[in-house]
Amino acid sequence: MEEVKLQVRITPNASRNEVTQDGDLLKVKLTAPPVDGKANKALLEILSKYFKIPKTSIKIIKGETSKNKLLLLKM
Fold first, then answer.
1. C-alpha pair distances (Å), 5 with each of 15, 34, 70, 75
2. In CATH, what class is 3-74?
């Protein structure tokens, strides 16, 4: 099982959910608001579909309350 660290910038309260890539940075637009962990939960759901891995294989290492996050993916 390979572990990959991934830099992500999220935009909460967007008009639609969307994943785009800008070099090494993954940009994720979320319709969820940044309250009570809703944006983080939505981020895990979207990325699990995007990478076709279970949500439990994605962990937020850094930036739990920030727009800029460092994730660990187990693929």
1. 27, 23, 7, 11
2. alpha beta
Radius of gyration of the chain (CA): 11
Instruction: State the number of CA atoms in the 13 A half-sphere of 17 facing the CB.
Output: 13
Element at 28 (helix H, strand E): strand 25-29
Gap between the Cα atoms of 18 and 1, Å rounded = 27
Q: Are the beta carbons of 61 and 68 closer than 8 angstroms?
A: no
Model pTM above 0.85: yes
- pLDDT (tens digit per residue) in 22-63: 998 999 999 999 999 999 999 999 999 999 999 999 999 999
Where do the domains of the chain lie? 3-74
